[in-house]
Amino acid sequence: MARTVLGVLLVVAALLAVFVLPPVWGGLAIVVAAVIEVGETTFWIRFSRRRRVQVGAETLIGAVGRVTSACCPDGQMRLRGEIWGARCERGAEPGETVRVVRLDGLTLVVEPVEGRK
Asked: How far apart, in whole angstroms, are the C-alpha atoms of residue 49 and residue 26?
């Protein structure tokens, strides 16, 4: 949205420069709009590179989800909108909140989160 607004600012500055403003002010309007556009682009590029993208099943370690079918010890859980196979050695009932401890292939090894239902 902001990108579009400032892009429009550059177009408006160019139209004003050509049709309305005297040549000196028109050139100044285009230069100011271009500097704002370059500054905004630089800001968003730096902002988008602050954090590295996290991908892969390893990013699930430490995540919290809910058990959908009893884990005694094997069952299923919902995590980030997906159903995963889960294993809980202590056991967990449907609706219980669990935390991912590690991975075993595509099965999540989980443990119940104390104090949360």
From this structure: 35
